[in-house]
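Figure 6 in text form: structure in, sequence out.
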């Protein structure tokens, strides 16, 4: 059948069909895959600088996760970030994705921020359990003279996350570590000043002798009082912290609002060196103001 003998509907469809979009999308797809493969090859080269940074970053993630008894491979998190960044870049190239650079920044820093937030939550939980742990340890020492046996008996009455730390310290002592080494490792993993004080009381009380259960009971009372004072301070400074975050967020709200209502309002700042200098100076002042405000409100007891 010749082209002239085709029905009118088919002729109309053929007239609309063009290989231009197909070639364009195909080229973009091949280009995207090529960029992905080249980037992966560069990163996977063990002799290259990117691979060394990659290995250092993965090791840092795994070290932070293992200190919280989370054994997710850091390499898995890094590969996930790489894939998300690739999707964002592909979206920016293919679909003109707005604010793609901001999404890349979030992808780069989100895991680190999330892990640090989880670590802080875990430290806060340990500090909340610390006075009860010290009191339980003091009661255990009243029935057994061995501090190692007292630690073993306390494991069954405390809850996670402090139970995980105590259990690991006991396992370290069973494989040859001294009490000092096990407790120092525990303090290094957690990174809490209150825990450092409590463990120091245990070690000093053991070395100098005396009534160790009484020392631990006094330490427990002190920790409980410190926690109460910390709660009072947080209550008193809650309004100030809220004002700090509201005032800190106002510039961003104004920028987004003015940019939405009057598109191009801030374009003069991005068309000259003076504008970029002003943006940099304002940003630095904004960050410094937030840091100073946080230091003022961070009352240490």
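Output sequence:
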């Amino acid at each position: 059948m010749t082209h002239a003998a085709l029905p009118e509907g088919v002729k109309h469809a053929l007239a609309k069909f063009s290989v231009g979009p197909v070639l364009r999308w195909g080229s973009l797809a091949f280009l995207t895959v090529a960029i992905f493969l080249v980037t992966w090859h560069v990163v996977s080269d063990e002799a290259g600088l990117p691979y060394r940074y990659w290995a250092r970053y993965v090791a840092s993630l795994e070290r932070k996760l293992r200190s919280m008894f989370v054994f997710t491979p850091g390499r898995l998190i890094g590969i996930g970030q790489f894939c998300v960044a690739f999707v964002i870049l592909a979206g920016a190239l293919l679909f003109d994705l707005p604010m793609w650079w901001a999404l890349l920044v979030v992808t780069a820093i989100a895991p680190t921020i999330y892990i640090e937030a989880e670590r802080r939550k875990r430290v806060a939980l340990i500090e909340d359990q610390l006075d009860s742990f010290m009191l339980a340890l003091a009661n255990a020492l009243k029935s057994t003279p061995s501090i190692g046996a007292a630690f073993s008996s306390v494991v069954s009455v405390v809850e996670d996350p402090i139970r995980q730390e105590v259990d690991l310290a006991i396992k370290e002592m069973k494989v040859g570590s001294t009490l000092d080494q096990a407790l120092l490792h525990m303090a290094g993993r957690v990174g809490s000043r209150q825990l450092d004080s409590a463990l120091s009381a245990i070690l000093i009380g053991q070395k100098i002798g005396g009534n160790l259960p009484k020392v631990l009971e006094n330490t427990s009372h002190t920790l409980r009082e410190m926690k109460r004072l910390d709660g009072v301070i947080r209550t008193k400074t809650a309004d100030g912290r809220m004002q700090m975050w509201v005032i800190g967020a106002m510039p961003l709200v104004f920028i987004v609002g003015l940019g939405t209502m009057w598109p191009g309002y801030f374009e003069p700042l991005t068309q000259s060196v003076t504008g970029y200098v002003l943006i940099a100076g304002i940003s630095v002042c904004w960050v410094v103001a937030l840091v100073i405000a946080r230091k003022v409100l961070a009352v240490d007891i």
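Caption detail: Residues 100-143 form the longest helix (44 residues).
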